[in-house]
């Protein structure tokens, strides 16, 4: 067994010495998921509860009854669907080479695997999500998620149990194929949860990731998906938008953004014209 090379590896060794690999892969992963999910999602719920409208994409606010319903069902889904799936997935991960041992993977290895996971997840999620918007599957399965036309962070995982299994496969497919180190798995899970919570948060901030990464979807991109009728929604992508762009399923969204940009330009022009007229009037008064 490799010896720890730093304080972090020493702490990791203490963790693996006190818990079995199965416990860390299942219960440990569940606790990591719940912590990241609720710590990142609850602030957006509080913002909506206290009616903080600045940067909110939609004016509509969910009722307290709708918010409570979401929280109650989430707890049921997490303990009765997510946790069992994590436990049952362990043998597959182990067969593919999953490990908790030292040495920990390098950041280069972790970065490469996370990049691969995003590509795999985006591809599977796009086609799975698009399939869920066909009439039959939407009516009986995906409509549960779309009960919230005005999403807030925690609605990201509010879905029919079959959808949780169906699209959850997109998230675990990459790690299942590569058999990652547990550290990589936990980092992937955390990043993926943060992304989906942000996409459903209902707020577009000046510091939102979509402002800095052009192909990142984010809250505004996914909020449009929730506002539209299921047959015309588009914007099916998960994290990045290139799949929608490639297959033309973001046309409606792009037209809307273009119209908004043109409207904003007209307002600026009118404001400038009004300012110029006012300056001219001041000059006339001065000359007199």
UniProtKB/TrEMBL annotation:
Keyword terms of this UniProt record: Membrane, Transmembrane, Transmembrane helix
A Pfam family hit: FA_hydroxylase
Keyword Chloroplast found: no
Main location: membrane
Single GO molecular function: C-4 methylsterol oxidase activity
Start and end residues of each Fatty acid hydroxylase domain: 115-249
Superkingdom in the source lineage: Eukaryota
Membrane-spanning parts: 22-46, 74-93, 113-132, 164-189
Phosphoprotein among keywords: no
InterPro entries noted in UniProt: Fatty_acid_hydroxylase (IPR006694), Sterol_Desaturase_Related (IPR050307)
Single GO biological process annotation from the record: sterol biosynthetic process
Subcellular locations according to the entry: Membrane
GO cellular component: endoplasmic reticulum membrane
Family: Belongs to the sterol desaturase family.
Protein name listed in UniProt: Sterol 4-alpha-methyl-oxidase 2
Organism: Klebsormidium nitens (Green alga)
Phylogenetic placement of the source organism: Eukaryota, Viridiplantae, Streptophyta, Klebsormidiophyceae, Klebsormidiales
């Amino acid at each position: 067994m490799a010896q720890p090379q730093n304080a972090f590896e020493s702490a990791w060794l203490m963790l693996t010495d006190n818990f079995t690999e199965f416990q860390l892969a299942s219960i440990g992963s569940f606790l990591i998921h719940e912590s990241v999910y609720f710590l990142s999602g609850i602030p957006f719920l509080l913002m909506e509860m206290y009616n903080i409208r600045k940067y909110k994409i939609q004016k509509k606010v969910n009722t307290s009854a709708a918010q409570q319903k979401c929280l109650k069902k989430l707890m049921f889904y997490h303990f009765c669907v997510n946790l069992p799936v994590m436990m049952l997935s362990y043998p597959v991960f182990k067969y593919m080479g999953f490990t908790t041992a030292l040495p920990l993977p390098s950041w280069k290895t972790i970065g490469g695997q996370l990049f691969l996971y995003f590509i795999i997840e985006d591809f599977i999620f796009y086609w799975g999500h698009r399939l869920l918007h066909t009439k039959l599957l939407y009516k009986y399965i995906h409509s549960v998620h779309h009960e919230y036309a005005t999403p807030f962070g925690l609605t990201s995982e509010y879905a029919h149990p079959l959808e949780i299994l169906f699209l959850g496969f997109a998230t675990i497919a990459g790690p299942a194929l590569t058999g990652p180190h547990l550290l990589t798995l936990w980092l992937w899970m955390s990043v993926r949860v943060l992304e989906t919570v942000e996409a459903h948060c209902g707020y577009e901030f000046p510091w939102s990731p979509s402002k800095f990464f052009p192909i990142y979807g984010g809250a505004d991109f996914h909020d449009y998906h929730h506002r539209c009728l299921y047959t015309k929604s588009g914007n099916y992508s998960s994290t990045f938008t290139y799949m929608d762009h490639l297959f033309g399923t973001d046309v409606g969204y792009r037209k809307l953004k273009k119209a908004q940009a043109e409207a904003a330009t007209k307002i600026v022009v009118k404001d400038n014209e009004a300012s110029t007229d006012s300056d001219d009037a001041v000059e006339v008064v001065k000359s007199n």
